[in-house]
Amino acid sequence: MAAADELAFHEFEEATNLLAQTPDAATTSRSEPLTLQGHVAVAVDSGGSYGAEDEVEESDKTALLQEEKQQPGFWTFSYYQSFFDVDTSQVLDRIRGSLLPRPGHNFVRHHLRNRPDLYGPFWICATLAFVLAISGNLTLVLAQRRDPSIHYSPQFHKVTVAGVTIYCYAWLVPLALWGFLRWRKGVRERVGPYTFLETVCVYGYSLFVFIPTVVLWLIPVPWLQWLFGALALALSAAGLVFTLWPVVREDTRLAAAVLLSVIVLLHALLALGCKFYFFQPLPPVHAAPPPQATSLPPSVLLPSTAPRSAST
Amino acid sequence: MAEAAESPGDPVTASSRPLFAGLSDISISQDIPVEGEITIPMRSRIREFDSSTLNESVQNTVMRDLKAVGKKFMHVLYPRKSNTLLRDWDLWGPLILCVTLALMLQRGSVDSEKDGGPQFAEVFVIVWFGAVTITLNSKLLGGNISFFQSLCVLGYCILPLTVAMLVCRLVLLAEPGPINFMVRLFVVIVMFAWSIVASTAFLADSQPPNRKALAVYPVFLFYFVISWMILTFTP
């Protein structure tokens, strides 16, 4: 009996000691490795009677934090779950960070903090694709109201076009950029270019500013539309440039300038292409959309118009 | 435990060893004979159950399935936090609703194929791949709902929008005009809100609390797109 009492009292004392020394150990999930190591040291020193299972817990936690690279294989579900490990507040914070780019404020370092996610890019692209198609359709409805000779149709195929365009842009361009940066960096430095996921994240979140812009493009005032478009493009491209500048400035000036201007140019082409393709009400005479800029990737509709524009 | 596995399949050896049979009568705490006695009657009962659903008439089977689907429709129309939709999931209801919706969204007019409304296959793909994507999303975010349960809930919660489609088609039989559009807009908005409330009532509990909004937003987008297809339908 005396031994059991002694044991119980001993546990309680050690628990209060441990809690006093590391008061926030239980609450925070992203605690610094240093603090956690201290916690482990305390648990180990206090003997085996209390921390038998707690030791295993703490050592598991440190193992997880230190060996972060030891991820499950890509054929397991938990591998992909690690890309969706974000909370609502984190996603909102990242969106806010993409809306307000600041010169010294690197999106990847400040907001992603080595935890890129795929939730943001995927659903922002989906939302943008649907909002583009819906707004384009609404523009046609509003145009028909003013001018009843315009032929209205739901134009559902534009959803497909929008989806393919946005997703291709948001995933293939970061792939090309990542590949290019890796090639320039060579294999000398491990700390250098961003990982592929971080690049996809940057591009995905930078497309968010186009969602309200596309909705505002419903206002049928042309100069206002161009103003909104330019504003959105400036914000979005600025976010991209500020994020990529620290990586690119170590390269030669020519390469840096070319890379940044190509990125801005591609972004501008996307914005322009969307504006022209989705927001041009069809004149009643022609049955096909007017010949567009060649910025769109080959999509379903273009093969029918390509021979016409090629012949002109 | 190996003996326990052997004893139910070995009634002959059990009977050829009267000593052990006596032991089974006396000692209740021994798990080996008790397990043997318990599993054997259960097996015959399962066999009876199997043959009963095999031998029943087709009408019984169909009516049972239809009643299950109808019960779930009621649960969607009056959403309460009950587990019926989740426990006994089935995909008949979603299939019926999706096919009905896709058929009603067909236009009879001879428009150019590219310029028209959604084709049957497009509606089908949007509904099913949208539901699959939302399910995958909620599972990846750490929700503890099974794949088919989530598909079942999302599919059944299309019911209010199918009703809205019916009402819209009826309203479109009247003369077109702004009142026509207002009525349709009102109906679609109400049904859209109903779908969201119904599916959130079933799905929200399965998510971790700090990610509920992340899991509910794709559902909102999904039903918004379907509502848009319904609203822009013109015969």
Please describe the structure with a list of short key phrases separated by commas or semicolons.
heterodimer; A: 312 residues; mainly alpha; 13 helices; disordered C terminus; B: 235 residues; 2 domains; disordered N terminus; transmembrane (chain A); Yip1_dom (chain A); transmembrane helix (chain A)
- Tell me what portion of residues of chain B adopts beta-strand conformation: under 5%
Radius of gyration of chain B: 26 Å
- Assembly classification: heterodimer
Cα-to-Cα separation, first versus last residue of chain B? 69 Å
Provide the domain count of chain B.
2
Pfam families (chain A): Yip1
Keywords (chain A): Membrane, Transmembrane, Transmembrane helix
InterPro entries (chain A): Yip1_dom (IPR006977), Yip5/YIPF1/YIPF2 (IPR039765)
Membrane topology (chain A): Multi-pass membrane protein
Give structural notes:
The complex is a heterodimer of chains A (312) and B (235). Chain A has 312 residues and is mainly α. The longest helix of chain A has 29 residues. Chain A starts with a helix and ends with a helix. The C terminus of chain A is likely disordered. Chain B has 235 residues and is an all-alpha fold. Chain B has two domains: 49 residues, no CATH class; 149 residues, no CATH class. Helix content of chain B is 73%, strand content 0%. In chain B, helix 7 packs across helix 8 and helix 10 packs parallel to helix 12. Chain B is globular, with a radius of gyration of 26 Å. Chain B starts with a helix and ends with a helix. The relative contact order of chain B is 0.10. The N terminus of chain B is likely disordered.
